[in-house]
Amino acid sequence: MLLTDNDLQSIWLTLRLAGIVTVILFLVGTPIAWWLARTRSHWKGPVGAVVALPLVLPPSVLGFYLLVTMGPNGPVGQLTQALGIGLLPFTFWGLVVASVFYSLPFMVQPVQNAFEAVGDRPLEVAATLRASPLNAFFTVALPLAAPGFLTAGILTFAHTVGEFGVVLMIGGNIPGVTRVASVQIYDHVEAMEYSDAHRLAAVMLIFSFLVLLVLYLWRPSPKNT
Amino acid sequence: MEPIEIRFNIDWPGFSLAVDEQLPGRGVTALFGHSGSGKTTLLRCIAGLVRAPKGRLVFQGKVWQDDSTWVPTHRRSLGYVFQEASLFPHLTVIGNLRYGQKRAPADIPAEQRVSLDQAIDLLGIRPLLDRKPDRLSGGERQRVAIARALAVSPRILLMDEPLAALDLARKQEILPYLERLHDELAIPVLYVSHAPDEVARLADHLVIMDGGRVLASGPLAATLARLDLPIRLGEDAGVVLEGRITERDTRWHLLKVDCGGVDLWVRDTGVPTDHPVRVRILARDVSIVLAPVEGTSILNTLPARILSLGEDAHPALALVQLQAGQSTLLARLTHRSADHLRLAPGLPVWMQIKAVALL
User: Fold this and answer.
1) What are the pLDDT digits (tens) for A108-126?
2) Structural domain count of chain A
3) Predicted ipTM of the assembly
4) Residue B230 pLDDT more than 60?
5) A53 belongs to a structural domain
6) Which chain A residue lies closest to B81 (C-alpha atoms)?
7) What is the 3-state secondary structure (H, E, C) of A135-195?
8) Domain for residue A90, yes or no?
9) Which of A157, A163, B199, B356 could be stapled to B30 by a disulfide with Cβ–Cβ 3.0 to 4.6 Å?
10) Considering only CB atoms, which chain B residues are within 8 Å of A147?
11) Which CATH architecture describes the domain B238-358?
12) pLDDT value at position A224?
């Protein structure tokens, strides 16, 4: 076997984290994207900017604020302690929470674009065909925006796999708990284990390339109605 | 059928709508006007797609909108046909038809219920059922959209320029289907259009709109024959008469149509003899002579009496309202001719009608 057990453990942890984050973001990001796509509220700009923040913010900054917020004296930390969950930093679920924030724009923006491309008309048609707004959302808006969801899911998953700075800030480096593949590579390099680093880095490189290849090959051509 | 009560006031930047009308609860009512006249917005208000503040809408005794009531679009028993067919691209033709049909409430009375088969056959789309919308022609798509709107068994059908996006050939393909709806279904239709030929062919009642206001509302023939309105219609000023075929001349391929005591010869289009017909006579095709002329190629020369004279859009032109039998016609001539012939209300004259279109 080319990869060590620790390497495999970190890969498995990475995939688990990315999978869970993607599922959560489908549930959390879709309503946000829908609201952003359809609202005429003055809050559209500020909310859109907050959603996009992780695109430009250094991961260490995001990680720092999340660490403080979820720490023993932070509001979220006090809440989780009061609920008996304990503290989230340096746990797997702390990583999940941090990654949800970190990858939010990669889910929201493609889905928002897809919803905007659907436009008002199909929903108006659905209303005249006696579909309630919720029903029209599931039977018309979701199917028509499906390509956007595919793109968003792949991007979110891949982006979470590639995360490093936030993990280091919020999760530390606990084997089997928070030591994901990117951190494992860092460790190998720190320990001068360049050949180990090479192998794992190659796995990451191939994975990332394949994901993007799938994205670019599958991107459906725009349909005319 | 109870009339439809509508009262809407909208004040948007650059656009206003102020309408307070009773529309007939049966037949085809055309909302006619130029683009920007507010006819589409009015239709959208009626559908509930636009919510006019402080509006009021009562349809067949049910309040759809007033100060305390708002029935959302999906709870209004209506069918809506948009200018572009707007079929759902992810569904086949039959999928599109079923979308509304299966959501139609169960308590629709049997005589109002439109079955899927009925909608499919009325619009002649049976061969298309398994196709996706992107595999249909523009005319086919619009026929599917009309069938889809009918399949919800609506109490009223709202059509927003359903033919405007189509070329002439596709229009001719769909118009007969619209006439069948008129003949075979009892539900009222509100038909938005800026095309006088569609209105002349389909409408029973005419509402003329301009600048967000209703200029005139009344039965088609009477409204078209008004002297104060044709200015707005320009070259399309003219009347529509209802009649029945009394004679078929097979040698010359002509039909004699009796329109309220006026006998007109028109080209034989092959319509069945017992079928009621409509003819359209444009004001510009009617000229006036004081005595019948010998040796003319004009087929229809008829005695008439002048009712009144009015202004046309151009200062050189006058419009003359004429009575023949029980029908009212319009003629367009120059003021100079009117003066020369000393035309005045009550004067008996002869009309020479250059063209009569059988609709």
Assistant:
1) 999 999 999 999 999 999 9
2) 1
3) 0.85
4) no
5) yes
6) A125
7) HHHHHHHHHHCHHHHHHHHHHHHHHHHCCCHHHHHHHCCCCCCCCCHHHHHHHHHHCCCHH
8) yes
9) B199
10) none
11) Beta Barrel (2.40)
12) 42
> What residue type is B315 in one-letter code?
P
Decide: residue B310, CB within 10 A, 0-12 exposed, 13-18 middle, 19+ buried: middle
Contacts of A121 in chain B (CB under 8 A): 82, 84, 86
- Altogether, the residues listed in chain A come to a count of 225
**pLDDT on residue A223:** 46
Contact A9, A177 (CB under 8 A): no
- Domain segments of chain B: what residues? 4-224, 238-358
A223 assigned to some structural domain: no
Tell me, what's the pLDDT at B235? 74
Compute the half-sphere exposure of residue A225: CA atoms within 13 Å on the CB side of its CA.
17
Among the partner residues B47, B105, B134, nearest to A128 by beta-carbon distance? B47
Which CATH number goes with the domain that contains A14? 1.10.3720.10
- pLDDT, tens digit, for every residue of A179-205? 999 999 999 999 999 999 999 999 999
The answer for residues whose C-beta is within 8 angstroms of residue B323's C-beta and 6 or more apart is: B304, B305, B306, B307, B329
Nearest CB neighbour to A130, from listed B82, B88, B103:
B103
Instruction: State how far the Cα of A65 lies from the Cα of A80, in Å rounded to an integer.
Output: 16
Task: Indicate whether B180 pLDDT > 90.
Answer: no
Best of B73, B87, B116 to mutate (most A CBs within 10 Å, chain A): B73
Mutate to test the interface with B, among A123, A130, A135, A140 (most CBs of B within 10 A): A130
Q: Give A44 to chain B, closest Cα distance, Å.
A: 22
Q: What is the reported pLDDT for A219?
A: 66
Tell me if A128 and B80 make a contact (CB, 8 A cut-off).
Answer: yes
Per-residue pLDDT, averaged over B89-114, amounts to: 89
For residues B46 and B41, give the distance between their C-alpha atoms in angstroms, rounded to a whole number: 9
Q: At residue B229, does pLDDT exceed 80?
A: no
Residue A224 in domain:
no
Under an 8 A CB cutoff, do B48 and A127 touch?
yes
Query: Using the beta-carbon criterion (under 8 Å), do A144 and B89 form an inter-chain contact?
Result: yes
Range of the domain at A23: 5-218
Q: Name the residue of chain A whose CA is nearest to B101's CA.
A: A129
Q: How many Cα atoms within 13 Å fall on the side-chain side of residue B278?
A: 16
Report the C-alpha gap between B317 and B334 in whole angstroms. 4
Please provide residue B196's backbone torsions phi and psi, each rounded to the nearest 5 degrees: -60, -30
Least confident of A69-83, B142-156, B167-181, B311-325: B167-181
Contacts A223 to B, Cβ<8 Å: 89, 134
Q: CB–CB of B134 and A122 under 8 A? A: no
Rounded mean pLDDT of chain A?
91
Interface of B with A in 90-129 (CB under 8 A): 90, 99-100, 103-105
Name the residue in chain B with its Cα closest to that of A144.
Answer: B90
How many cross-chain Cβ pairs, A to B, lie less than 8 Å apart?
A: 67
What would the CATH number be for the domain defined by B4-224?
Answer: 3.40.50.300
Q: pLDDT tens digits for B38-76?
A: 999 999 999 999 999 889 999 999 999 999 999 999 999
Please list every residue in chain A whose beta carbon sits closer than 8 Å to the beta carbon of residue B102.
none
Mean of per-residue pLDDT scores for chain B: 90
pLDDT-based confidence at residue A45 (cuts at 50, 70, 90): very high
Does B49 contact A at CB distance below 8 Å? Answer: yes
